[in-house]
Amino acid sequence: MSLKLDNVSYIYESGTNMERKALENINLEISKGEFIGIIGHTGSGKSTLVTLLNGLISPSGGSIYWDGQDINDKSFDRKMLRSKVGLVFQYPEHQLFEADVFSDVCFGPKNLGLSADEVKERAYRAIKDVHLDDKYLKQSPFELSGGQKRRVAIAGVLAMGPEILVLDEPCAGLDPKGRNEILDLLSSLHENEGITVVLVSHSMEDVADHADRIVVMDKGHIVYDEAPKRVFGHVHELEEMGLSVPEVTYIMNDLADEGFAVSRDVTTIDEAVAEIKRLVER
């Protein structure tokens, strides 16, 4: 499984006086088993990028390949791609529309042409995977909390059997408990189900804690595509782009500036605890 963007660009309102280039010369490859974080300030092109990944929009230039096949070829099966690359929007209301939760989760697999029994089996399995209580199954999804709506939206995508799960700001507007529950769910799907996760987030802590690779976007370009420690080593460059690094990284840099022999490339609290413990014991 591989999804590759080759020199991809995207222009909104092309050919009009409202023309705006959202992406330019994007080269990106997503491979099986990765957990990728995508960060960037508002307007950097993050959301445009993720809607390209499963063919919701087509690039203005360049090519996108699924396992070596150009997804814009007339013979390419877009329905198959959207079952393999599942997209969860920032606002779950945009993809919830059935009368009750169970019907909503069934919608995707039903449109794959599966039998009624297979649709129900997939839906129940997905609902179990997102840890949504059965008591909500006959309830309207619009009566649920923000975190529960996101679970339903994720379950609806999981029921289609994706190999890649793409989420655009899934924790936006959630309280700390709801945010942690969603992030723990994504980690479980990645680690236990083998699903490749692409997480768009404005939280440096979230991507530092969960991603093994971070893509930094600025003005429609990919500026960095590296491991978290390397990305967050570019403190001043990120700040110039209107971004930051995890708070714990700032703290460890302050300690180092004060003469303490601690590493500056700490990006998580667990790493900071281990580093300070090592310093004390020494």
Describe this structure in words.
It is built from eleven helices and ten strands. It has helices at 46-53, 78-84, 101-110, 116-129, 146-158, 176-193, 204-210, 228-231, 235-240, 247-257, 269-281; strands spanning 2-12, 20-31, 35-39, 61-66, 69-70, 85-88, 164-168, 196-200, 213-218, 221-226. Strand 1 (2-12) and strand 2 (20-31) form a beta hairpin. Helix 3 (101-110) crosses helix 4 (116-129), helix 3 runs parallel beside helix 5 and helix 4 (116-129) crosses helix 5. It is globular and about 65 Å long.
Give the low-pLDDT segments. none
How far apart the termini lie comes to 46 Å
Helix content: 25-40%
Kindly provide the radius of gyration, computed on alpha-carbon positions and rounded to a whole number of angstroms. Answer: 20 Å
SSE succession: EEEHEEHEHHHEHEHEEHHHH
Number of continuous helical runs: 11
Total strand segments? 10
Blueprint of the fold:
Elements lengths: L1 E11 L7 E12 L3 E5 L6 H8 L7 E6 L2 E2 L7 H7 E4 L12 H10 L5 H14 L16 H13 L5 E5 L7 H18 L2 E5 L3 H7 L2 E6 L2 E6 L1 H4 L3 H6 L6 H11 L11 H13 L1
Parallel strand pairs: 3-8, 3-9, 6-7, 7-8
Antiparallel strand pairs: 1-2, 1-4, 4-5, 9-10
